[in-house]
Structures are given as structure tokens and as C-alpha cells.
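Consider the following assembly input.
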Amino acid sequence: MDIEYESVIGLEVHVQLKTKSKIFSQASTNFGANPNTQACAVDLGLPGVLPVLNKEAVRMAITFGLAVGARIENNSIFARKNYFYPDLPKGYQISQYEIPIVSGGSLDINANGELKKIRITRAHLEEDAGKSIHDLYENESAIDLNRAGTPLIEIVSEPDMRSSKEAVEYLKKIHNLVRYLDICDGNMQEGSFRCDANVSLRAKGSNELGIRTEIKNLNSFKFVEQAINFEISRQTQVLSKGNNVVQETRLYDPNKNQTRSMRSKEEANDYRYFPDPDLLPVEITKETITKIMENMPELPDKRKTRFMDEYGLEEYDVDILISEKSLSNYFEKVVKKVTCDVKFVANWMITELLALSNKHSILPANIPVSPSDFSCLINAISDKRISSKQAKTILEKMWKSGKSPDEIIDEEGFSQISDEGQINKLVDNVLKNHYKSVEEYKNGKDKLFGFFVGEIIKESKGKANPQIVTQILKEKLKDDN
Amino acid sequence: MDKETVSKIANLANIELDDSKVNEVVNNLEKILKLVDEMNSVDTSNLNPMSHPLNLKQELRDDIVLEPNQRELFQENSPNSHDGYYIVPKIID
Amino acid sequence: MENKTLTELTVELKSKKISSSELTKYYLEKIKKYDPRLNSFITLTEEFALKKASQIDTEISKGNFKPLSGIPIAQKDIFCTKGVRTTCGSKMLSNFISPYDATVIRKLNEAGTVMIGKTNMDEFAMGSSNETSYFGTVKNPWDLERVPGGSSGGSAACVSAGLAPCATGTDTGGSIRQPASLTGICGLKPTYGRVSRYGMIAFASSLDQAGVFAKTAEDCALLLTHMSGYDEQDSTSSRESVPNYLQECKAEFKGMKIGIPKEFLEGLDHDVHLIFDEAVKQLEKVNCKIVEISLKSSKLGVSAYQVVAPAECSSNLSRYDGVRFGHRTKDAENIIELYKKSRSEGFGDEVKRRILVGTYALSAGYYDAYYIKAQKIRSLISREFKEAFDKVDLIIGPTTPDVAFKLGEKLNDPIAMYLSDIFTVSTNLAGLPAISIPMGMKKNLPTGLQIIGGHFQESKLLSLAHEFQKMTDWHLQKPDNQKWI
């Protein structure tokens, strides 16, 4: 008899905080520096050094906690997590264990069209490790400690997700949130945002948790989805053969699209957590919390409701616009400067601007066209100075050259002819040159109307406003009746 | 305290113990634990553990970058480094 | 010259009766002559010292005089000294050249002292006899067959033998006071947080505290004034303001109420007991009211200490992995071998023993029974001290149960060794300041009187110590160096 299984998924999301200096030292957190040039005495764990806590890292952790409705601990404790690894200089990671700075809270995700609450267990502050590079030398690994000491919050969810899709939804939600909060750059390729997934199966209807595996270090939404799916089918096979899943840490290999056991991590992990004697309890006063609350930026969910109410936009469009903080900010900047319908702006942003950013693989945050130039373009369309078709060409030129739409319109003579006198002349010319066709039209060949319009536009070198052309043409053909 | 426990904690601490010394270590640790067990003579159930001698709170530092690059100086103490990296035997995950 | 106090020396330096270069050379010569038998220094910084001394002399000639200008000082080799080998008494760091200065070193340098060398110590400050040093045992200047105490044995021995006018030390469970007692000098361990721990190689972070050795309480006060203060690089240092301890300790003495815990007299050597009774009589002469008190839980101090200190040390010493600095094994096939061999070759037996005990005490299933229990005992000990200080100004007792023991006598008996700290560890657990000053001789071997105060009551205990030294001359007695050569 086949048992139907339900997958149970929890995520541990590692979010690198956007501080200038490290969590416990005054070395830079910039990405991409030469190896070990940003690893100071404290980061290297030299004999005698001591950690000093970065205020900004604490503020950012609190900001996150407040954004997910969590409790902020007024006396949180740093603890040492003891294990040996070459990219962990002190032989322990300073983290939080018994009293993390943030506990509780939740996020709503969209699960098959319905809102589903994912509970957050906790979020704690900790230092990142360095990097071990295994493919640089033949028989050796190279250690770069520039990343060591970069502040992280680790956000631990309850096992509330039931599919890889929900897990990705949740992850995207956090990814979006931390960028709205401006506490993380969200760059997954550079490792600023990554996660571990805990996956287990249980018989559908059961309330007990099955034995789980932990898939480490997933750094793209696609990998999270694929790794979880692979793990679900692997565990399903194990269980349906009547075997038990082994509790272990696994690594996802995107090239093979499979997970494998990490033997090095299999030795009994006994992290021997204890309060770090070099750091004191972190007191967070009500005043601090109030101040952070007052400076809290608008969160994505709230912005979504507002965009729908204030601008009357469809949910589908709003979801796209708020999916990136920079995009929704862009949108609002444009909206302030245009005279036309807001929906028209939304359409142009989604169908044209985002299409270009996809085509050029540019993140919305890095769109080279400024909101003010973009709003000029929109205004030129709505004022009928240029046609939509022209606008598309102009936008591409703006994208490449960085020039304003007016500059391009002037330089390349893109402006639209809307002057009725000018158009009258054009229409007269075309009708004169095609008098035979005019005859045919009058004899009932209606299709020729489009031909005339085309010829007139051609005559104007594409500049004549098609609406006015149509209007005048209709009258002329009627007049001659 | 037995040989097995000692070798387990030695593994955790990455300390190598000669077979010839294990018995002596077991013996010493047993004595130490016996001394330590004297703590059980008092009831401490109504006490909080004390991690710090002074009842102070953590001070927070401003987020400023002040550390210059001192890699060459630091790596003078390194037993093996090149191209700016610290070098260890190949790690296989 | 060596009978002069630091205050007297600074007067002579300021008035140019003597130059810092002369003073420095004098001590360097003495070290060269006597230290081969004593082994109190690991590294002599002769070149560095002479250069600094001559700089100071130039400064003095220009009229720039800092509080400790030109005073030679020996630094315990646990303090990181920029450009100078810093070994912590271990093979692990036998080639480590520190790229930075500890805050204590920086402050003392800024106050004008001249470092003449780095003193020998128990490996990573783990020991009470200075026999665990990778650089060999230090001898007690009063009897070369005996230990000087530890872990700051080198600092104590060199000051006792007149090879340096003063020295720094660190005290985790008695590592300043016990050797001061056994070598007949003054050793001050300040309140936890009084002096920055930055750059002081960690043994047990919540217990470690830097302090000083000198011949008199006054000298300790002078040095403490210039070592203390909040350090933004040490989160556990205190913002409590730093008084002029020298002035405060010399202020008019008006008598005090002093408690003697009966537990500090248990298991005490008979002769030491008699010497202590004599000292108490002296104190009564200067209007001190002596009362018997009880610190019931102090007996458990050694037990709690033997959990907390190893636990913290097991974690603190994980950074010595042979990767970025320190000893690295010659042959390692893989990373685990690199760790295991480097650490096993680089650490001595006592250090390994404590790492193992600490690892055990923190491991899953034992954490509550050992670590949490010990931290609760700590609370209890702390509370008892606090209650005692509601009734008395200071607490006194003998620093050690007996005089210096013979070399090798306790080396293979860790428990006996640990118990030699029985009167000193509880003050570390509670973070209290304490001083040991010479209180009398038992068969030509010194004994020490320990004075303990409440948090940041250094002035009070220095004041009592100073008052005692005005009435006695035990602190002026010195070993006969001539006998050694």
C-alpha cells in the first residue's frame, strides 16, 4: 500500500547586514577586495584581541524584528559556537544561542492564491566565516578571511512550509523585505543572502515531524526549489522502501541537480555553546525601539495595499512593481511628474522598461534611465508629441546613451506632426498621387483606407500623428463625396 | 570518565593523546572532576548563573571603518601563506 | 639603587640626578649577571630599552616629564608587544612577533616606562609554580630549590631579586598574589574591568585581570594609576573613573573595620598562622577593628574555578590551530591532522589537561551539571562577599596556606597544585581587587598578607597596605643574590 507523504520544510536564512564595518571589528565589509586585505587583527583572531559590537548591526537586527512583528529581547546574549574550520579563525563563531535578539514574528506568503502565515522562530546576530577556496591550488586549500566577521542575521522559520514553491515564496518575501528595510543588498551571487533548508517527510495527516536533513548554503531561488524537490523525492524513495532517513547535513550540486551527504560535517557536532565572556548583555531600551519604529520605512505589504488603493492599479501589476523596492520607488517618482493616467505609467514600466532590463540583464536598481527622463518620455507620448512606436525606439536610445528624451527627439527629428494644416497638405498630396485608388475606395473598396493612412505616415517620415491623420482623411474622403 | 570519553573530548578539542598517556589523563581528569563535584554540596536552585563579575551592559561602537590593510605584517607570523592567502592542506567536504 | 621606590626614582630622574639610560643599563647588567640562575626572563629587549631610555632622557632634558618617565619595567610575556616576540610561555607562540601593542603596554609606554624584557610565566598562565613554561622553570630568589609561584613567576622573581624595579602580571586565580607572596614582594590584582584586557593573551576571559608587582604598596598605586581606565577595545572594561591611587593610598589613615574569614585560616600552616597573627596585631595598633567573618562558600571556589577557567580556556585556545600564526606541525596530510599535531606539539601537558576538562564541562549533557553549576556557585560566592562588605571595609587573610614549595613537589599532582590557590581564587570569581604584601618570614622564606576589597576599592586596600608597610620592614627584605654565583 502506498502512503501519501507530506513534505515539511523550514528555512534558516542568512542575511548579510549592510554595515560599513564588521560586526566586531572596524575592518571594511566591502565585497571583492584582494584576499585578506580586509581581515584585521580581530578578524584573524590574533592572540589577545577582543570583539566590540557594531551599533548599526544591532539596529538592523531590531529593524528586521520589528518588521516581522517579533519580540525584541531587552537583554540578549552573545554565545560562542565552538568548532574547528580553517575559515573560522578563532575556532568559535560568535553567535547567539539562548537569548537571541529577535524572537517570534511571522510573514504571510501567497500559497496557491491564499495567504499563509509562516512563523519565524527567531533571528539572531552572528559573524560570518571567511572563505575556503578549494580549486585554486592542487593539493591545498586557500583561506581568505575578508568575509570573516561580516555581520549576519540568521532568520530561523518554523517548519511551516509544505512545498518547495512555498519555501521559495517565503524566501522571496524575506529577500524583498530586507531590501525594503535597507539592511541587506540581497546580492545572492555574492553570498549576501543565502539559506539552509530543513526538509522532512511525514505521512499525510500526521502531526509528528519526520527525520530531517539539512541542505546547506543554497544561494539562488532556483537552487532552493530544485534542491528541496530533489530531497523530497529522495526521501520519498527511502521511506517507500521501508528505510529510515538519516539525519545529516547535505550539499546541493546544481550541476548534477542532486544533494549529497557532507561527510566532513557528520562527526558528532557538539558546538559547546556558552555565553561569550568577552561580550556583555546587549541592553535594548524602549526608547531605542521607539526610535527605530519611527524611522521604519514603508514595508512591501503596506506599499502594495497603498498602490492598489491610491492608484487603482490591478494586484497583478502592483505585485510586479513592489517586487523590488527600487522599482516601486522609481514608479512613484515617475508618477509625481506625469500628467497622464497612472495605469499608463504602470503599463509602460512593466511592458517596456522591465523588458529592457530583462533583455540587458540589468537589475531594476541599476536601470540607467532616470525616473525624470522616463517621465518626460511618458509625457511626450501623452501630449502626442511622439507616437508610442517612436517612444519605444527613443527609450532604447535613452537606455544606451543616457541622453534625455528631448535631446533624442531634437537630434533625430522624432517629434510628431500634430499640426492640422501640415497634415491637410500631406493628405491632399497622397490623395492626389493615388487618385485611382481614391476612385476605387469611393466605389466601395473600404480596405484602402488603411493604405492611405500608411502612405500619409510614410510621406511624413513617420512623424504624422496617426489619430489626426485618420480624422482628416475621413473628412476629406467624405467631403469629396 | 573513561578512555572512550577522553578520546571523544580530545577529538572535539583536536588534541592528540598518546596511548601511553591516556590512562594518566583519565586518572587526572577523574581527580579533577571529583574536586569539582564538591560543588554539589550546596543547593543553587534559586541562584542565577553569573557570567560576568560586574553587572555591566554591552557598549556599542559606531559603524566606522578604521582598520588599514596590514596583511603583509600579519602574514609575517603565518606558517604558510602565498598570494595573500593562508594555506592549509586540501579540504574535502 | 634598588632599595629606592618608584616615587623616589622618578624624583631622581626628574632632577637628572640619574638618567634613564643609566638606570636601564644598571638593571640590564644585573639581569645578565643573575638571571641565568633565576630564568625570570624569556626575552630581553636590550636594544629596544636603551633606545627608549635615551629618547626619554632627551625628553627629560627638554623638560618633558611624564608620570613614569624613565622607569624600567619588566612585562609579563602574556602582553602583546609590537615587534617583540610574545610567547605566553608556550612553544605554540615561541616565534610569534606581535603586530600590535596590548593596551596595558601602550598605556605604560605612554606614561614613560622603559620595557627591559618579557618575563617567564606558566604556559598560557596555567600553573601556580612556573613549572609549566616551555622556557624552563623560574627559581625562587629566596631559595633556588623552590618555586617562585605562578603563573606570573618570572615577574615576581625578577622584582624580588632586584632585576627590575617593577613588573606587570596577570591574575586569573591568584597568578599575581600567590607569586608575590612566595617571593616577598607586593602584587596587586585590580578589580575585574579596571585594567583593559585588550592584547593580554586570554586564559579565562571572565577571570583574567592585569596587575602589577613592586616592592611597596605606594609603587603599586603609582603604576595602577597609569594602567587603569576604560578601553573602547575591551567591552568588559569599566568606565569607573580612575583616581590618583598614589595620593589616595598616602592619605591620612583613620582606621578601618577589617574582617578575617575563618575559612581562610583552615588548613593553614602553623608558622604562617603565627606570622599572620602578628600582622593582625600590627593592624590593631593603627586603629583597625578586627572581626571574624564567614565566607562559607569560598571553599567551593577552587571547584568552581576548575570548571569556569578550563571551560573558557578550552574555547579561547581554539584559535591556536597552526593556520594563521603560531606553531604548525611539519607533516600533516589533511586539515584534521594539521590541527591535532600542531596543537599537541605546541601545547604542554597542563594546557592540554585544562582544554580537555573545559571541553568536557561544556559538552552536551554536562553543561548544566558543570558550567552552569559553577557559574551559580560564583553568584553565591559573590553574594557572600557583598554581604561581608556591608559589615567590613576590607577582608584579610594569608595569601597562601604555606611558603614556597620545592620545585617538582606538586608538578605531578594537579589537585595539590590547584589547592595552592585556595585563598586567592574566590576574589577572581567575584571580580574583586586584592593585594598581597609581605607579612613576615618563615625560615628565610617570605609569606604574604592578602587584603581584599569591594569592587573598585583599590584605594582602600592600598591604603591599609601602605599603613602596614609604614610599621614593618618585611617589604624591604631581599634575597641574597650573591649566594648564587
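DSSP finds three helices and two strands in chain B. Ask yourself how this observation constrains the way the partners meet.
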